[in-house]
Design brief:
Belongs to the DedA family. With 222 residues, this protein is an all-alpha fold. The chain is built from nine helices and no strands. 37% of the residues are buried.
């Protein structure tokens, strides 16, 4: 079966729900491939299977809602929440990753939420960590909404435009073209994860050399 026929069989509503759900759950603090799902849906919109406007809207809604829920959970759960997440998702919420995210928040404040939407590591941390550090919610919401709009809208627009240009090629090569596009997305994700792991190792080595750091007050931004 040609890839075009397979894509035609997927209801658009299912694609919209998947985009909103995966992006929302990732933003809540659970590691999921939200960016890859969004890129795939945007590619489908370039081929006319779904609306790019609705794809972007669902991703924005998922990003803002997920981050807001994560913020609420982090504010109530505090540091023990990060410790529990570290035990459950050691590759994502390890002490090194937490330290990286905390330093970003200490340095950039609400802008860490905005720019964190574009970084795989901070995209997972932004909501819960902002709540743990008790960032004022209005400031968090502004940065969260702006980041979600620029991130989701930008990715959808770029992939849509690229997909329009590459549509004849993808149609000609069928599953091969779609497979290459997906492998490219996975390769990008693995590259980001390797960079995050390298940063984590450097921070852990520096922390071990410097000794224990004083605890944070948790009132930054108030």
């Amino acid at each position: 079966m040609h890839v075009q026929d397979w894509l035609d069989g997927i209801p658009p509503v299912a694609v919209y729900l998947m985009v909103g759900l995966v992006v929302g759950v990732e933003s809540l603090g659970i590691p999921l491939p939200g960016e890859i799902v969004l890129m795939t849906a945007a590619l489908m919109s370039a081929q006319g299977h779904v609306s790019p406007w609705v794809v972007a809207a669902c991703a924005i809604f998922g990003a803002v809602a997920g981050d807001s829920i994560g913020y609420s959970i982090g504010r109530k759960g505090g540091k023990p929440l990060l410790e529990r997440l570290g035990r459950r998702f050691p590759k994502h919420f390890s002490p090194g990753h937490v330290a990286t995210a905390e330093r970003s928040f200490q340095r950039w404040g609400m802008w860490a939420v905005f720019f964190g939407r574009f970084v795989a590591l901070l995209r997972i941390f932004a909501g819960p960590l902002a709540g743990v550090l008790k960032m004022p919610y209005p400031r968090f919401l502004i940065a969260n909404a702006l980041g979600g709009i620029v991130w989701a809208g930008g990715i959808t627009l770029i992939i849509y435009k690229v997909g329009k240009v590459a549509e004849p090629w993808l149609s000609k090569f069928g599953y091969v073209g779609l497979g290459i596009a997906i492998l490219f997305g996975i390769g990008s994700l693995l590259f980001v994860r390797r960079r995050a792991a390298k940063t984590q190792a450097e921070i852990e080595a520096a922390a071990a050399a410097a000794g224990p750091e004083p605890a944070m007050s948790g009132t930054e931004g108030e």
